[in-house]
Specification:
CATH architecture of the largest domain in chain B: 3-Layer(aba) Sandwich
CATH topology of the largest domain in chain B: Rossmann fold
Helix content of chain B: 25-40%
Number of domains of chain A: 2
CATH architecture of the largest domain in chain A: 3-Layer(aba) Sandwich
Strand content of chain A: 5-15%
Order of helices and strands of chain B: EEEHEHEHEHHEHEHEEEEHEEHEHEHH
CATH class of the largest domain in chain B: Alpha Beta
Largest interface: A-B, 48 and 46 residues
Radius of gyration of chain A: 23 Å
Number of helices of chain A: 13
Shape of chain A: globular
Distance between the termini of chain B: 30 Å
Number of strands of chain A: 7
Shape of chain B: globular
Radius of gyration of chain B: 20 Å
Strand order of the largest sheet of chain B: 5-4-6-7-9-8-14
Oligomer: heterodimer
Strand content of chain B: 15-25%
Largest sheet of chain A: 5 strands, parallel
CATH superfamily of the largest domain in chain A: Thiamin diphosphate (ThDP)-binding fold, Pyr/PP domains
Number of strands of chain B: 16
Largest sheet of chain B: 7 strands, mixed
Structural class of chain A: alpha/beta
CATH superfamily of the largest domain in chain B: Thiamin diphosphate (ThDP)-binding fold, Pyr/PP domains
Strand order of the largest sheet of chain A: 1-2-3-7-6
Structural class of chain B: alpha/beta
Helix content of chain A: 40-55%
CATH class of the largest domain in chain A: Alpha Beta
Chain lengths: 387, 339
């Protein structure tokens, strides 16, 4: 350990620092009107991939709107939208390969969509039906898929952060050209697991890219009551992690930063931290009402910075997209979403036996006993327990 | 019976005298030699070999990638190990003292234990084993003495294992490492060096979830695990002079536990005494007692006795008074038999 000697002249009082002198800039490439900021380098993003990113953002915006309504109609118990933050997730996931593991928080449905999670799969999880990969065990939006290398979402915050460091270490040991992409919010960064995970990743040289979505709020708690510093990015510096802050509503800035982050993680075998600056336009969840803790003016200010509109402006300026294609696509997405919603809510629930499987690899005898007692009880009162 | 037959090498069972720590070290060595995926991680476990030297020489033998120090963060160690296991490694994480496992409680209880269930078996972290020294008897006071096994036994999805001697330690640890579910492996540090016995040098496993009948008897069943077994056996010897024949059972695995073995014994003896170092209230003896009274109610001749630590933090100066030693167990044997 090398620490430079303090050569401050003894006459002056000892000098303390609080890091406030460090102001990390935010990378921006696109203006809201779709024009490119003066002097900005545009990342290499082919037309088809740009269209896919845009289409997936549009799809998730519509899915969120539809499922929020479905919850209000009482068809669904719970839902969480990512409205306003689409580019933070779409721009990151698009820079990674299918072999890279994704360990997310709960507002990253775009990562699933981008990797090919189908409308039916979203719906099956949301309704916890017999075709849900999670066997109806978790609340809505706790998606996951081994096939797509997306770890099942867990409700406790920040637990995925040290896990992602460990997962990435395993990838490194196996010599794979693969890394782990780990998402969380700025509120979760207050958890102990954030500090444990970032420090371990740095010390043990883990190829993991941490993406902190700074969306301004942790449920009702604003950033000003979450931390005293300039966002989360300075913490990356504190752990010796290569760090960048980006405009999270700017798809090109997010993509450019993410592509370089993946290169650093896999080639230099070390962690990276990206802080995407954005805003949670919707409520925390369907159980929340933001009108009690923030103003309409503040929301409007961010609505005017809509990341989907910004990308659309850029695509149209590039002549890669037009309004007619846009409305056609929206129409087809709406039809598909509604049709799959209706199918999913009518599917059977998972069998009762799924209650006791997967606790362990094989069901232990004491669980069989408890299950047999439950079955006998249900047989006596079938009406009480029918679906 | 859990006793595995000694492996034969050229018709000669090759074994040597080992203490419990050496047996642990031997198990880790064999696990790492036989499976490239096995990794050891924890505080000070690298070149130094851990504060108790359980991981001695492993870094030299298998390299820094496979046996490495971590920063001082129990929640980080547990989380990191879960991630490794989910990726396909077989991590054996050391928590330096069981007293310090609580920062990792969320990772163990909310994450490791539920990983397979919550994903519908899309993912699991079953390759993970957490080793941690537990228990009193070393003048460790509040924070180097605790027996927190009951907290973990209350969590579906975990397996909890505690060996009581060198032979068991090696065979059970090899089973734990190779088990497809996450295992918390508590090591009785008070007898790390004191427990010495013949241990096969080769590879062997003792099945999890199976208790060991250490001594046959007819009047009362004495049940325990870990370091407490030595106290129980001593008490059973004292009872002989009183004309009491004790059957002694070492539970070995607490979750899942071998209820059939205990119930069969209690059906025969009609009496049960359970002893653990952890406090009485909410201790694992309560769970066993409730289950056995349900299954053996008509065979019981006396109330089930629990001989445990007091419901206090673990004291330093009064450790000897706090611990459920052989004399406390002996007195309870006599009282139960004279009920």
């Amino acid at each position: 350990m090398k620490i430079a000697p303090n050569v401050t002249p003894a006459k002056r009082p000892p000098e303390f620092q609080d890091g406030s002198s460090i102001r990390l800039p935010s990378l921006q490439i696109l203006n809201q009107d779709g024009s490119v900021a003066a002097g900005a380098n545009i990342p290499d993003l082919p037309r088809d991939q740009a269209r896919k990113i845009y289409s997936d953002m549009l799809y998730i915006r519509l899915l969120d709107e539809r499922m929020q309504s479905a919850q209000r109609q009482g068809r669904l118990s719970f839902y969480m939208t990512c409205t306003g933050e689409e580019a933070s997730v779409a721009g990151t996931i698009a820079a990674f390969g299918a072999q890279d593991m994704v360990m997310a928080q709960y507002r990253e449905q775009l990562a699933l969509r981008y990797r090919g999670f189908t409308t039916a799969q979203f719906m099956n999880q949301l309704f916890g039906n017999i075709e849900d990969l999670g066997k109806g065990r978790m609340m809505p939006v706790h998606y996951g898929s081994r096939e797509l290398n997306i770890m099942t979402i867990s409700s406790p915050l920040a637990t995925q952060i040290p896990q992602a460091a460990g997962y990435a270490y395993g990838q490194k040991l196996k010599g794979k050209d693969a890394c782990t992409l780990c998402y969380f919010g700025e509120g979760a960064a207050s958890e102990g697991d954030f500090h444990a995970g970032l420090n371990m990743a740095a010390v043990l040289n883990c190829p993991v890219v941490f993406v902190v979505r700074n969306n301004g709020y942790a449920i009702s708690t604003p950033c000003s009551e979450q931390f005293a510093t300039d966002g989360i990015a300075p913490r990356g510096l504190g752990y010796g992690i290569k760090t960048i802050r980006v405009d999270g509503n700017d798809i090109l800035a997010v993509y450019a930063a993410s592509a370089e982050a993946r290169r650093i993680a896999t080639q230099e075998q070390r962690p990276v931290l990206i802080e995407t600056m954005s805003y949670r336009l919707g409520a925390h969840s369907t159980s929340d009402d933001p009108s009690g803790y923030r103003s309409k003016e503040e929301e409007q200010e961010w609505r005017d910075k809509d990341p989907i509109q910004r990308m659309k402006n850029w695509l149209i300026a590039q002549r890669w997209w037009d309004e007619e294609s846009d409305s056609d696509l929206q129409k087809s997405y709406r039809i598909e979403i509604l049709a799959e919603l209706k199918l999913a809510e009518q599917r059977d629930k998972p069998p009762l036996g799924d209650m006791i499987t997967d606790v362990y690899k094989t069901v232990p005898s004491h669980l069989f006993e408890q299950f047999q007692a439950l079955e006998a009880h249900i047989a006596k009162y079938p009406d009480r327990y029918s679906a | 019976m859990a006793t595995a037959t000694l492996p034969e090498i050229g018709n000669q069972p090759k074994s040597s005298k080992m203490n419990l720590l050496q047996a642990i070290n031997s198990a880790l060595d064999i696990a790492m030699a036989t499976d490239q995926r096995v990794l050891c991680l924890g505080e000070d476990i690298g070149h130094f070999g851990g504060v108790f030297r359980a991981t001695s020489n492993l870094q030299t033998k298998y390299g820094r990638d496979r046996c490495f120090n971590t920063p001082l963060t129990e929640q980080g160690i547990a989380g990191f190990a879960i991630g490794l296991a989910a990726q396909g490694s077989v991590p054996v994480a050391e928590i330096q003292f069981a007293d310090y496992i609580f920062p990792a409680f969320d990772q163990i209880v909310n994450e490791a234990a539920k990983f397979r269930y919550r994903s519908g078996d899309e993912f699991n972290c079953g390759g993970m084993t957490i080793r941690t020294p537990y228990g009193g008897g070393i003048d460790g006071g509040l924070y180097h003495s605790q027996s927190p096994e009951a907290y973990f036994c209350h969590t579906p999805g975990l397996k909890v294992v505690i060996p009581s001697n060198a032979y068991q330690a090696k065979g059970l640890l090899l089973s734990a490492i190779r088990d497809p579910d996450p295992v918390i492996f508590f090591e009785p540090k008070a007898i790390y060096r004191a427990s010495v016995g013949e241990v096969p040098e080769g590879d062997y496993e003792i099945p999890l979830g199976v208790a060991e009948v250490v001594q046959q008897g007819t009047d009362i069943t004495l049940l325990g695990w870990g370091a407490q077994m030595a106290q129980i056996i001593k008490a059973a010897e004292l009872a002989v002079d009183e004309g009491i024949s004790c059957e002694v059972i070492d539970l070995c695995s607490l979750l899942p536990w071998d209820r059939d073995c205990v119930a069969q014994s209690v059906t025969k003896t009609g009496r049960l005494l359970i002893s653990h170092e952890a406090p009485l209230t909410g201790g694992y003896a309560g769970e066993i007692a409730a289950s056995i009274q349900q299954h053996c109610f008509l065979s019981l001749e006396a109330p089930i006795s629990r001989v445990t630590g007091l419901d206090t933090p673990f004291p330093l100066i009064h450790e000897k008074h706090y611990l459920p030693d052989h004399l406390k167990i002996f007195e309870s044997i006599v009282a139960t038999c004279n009920y």
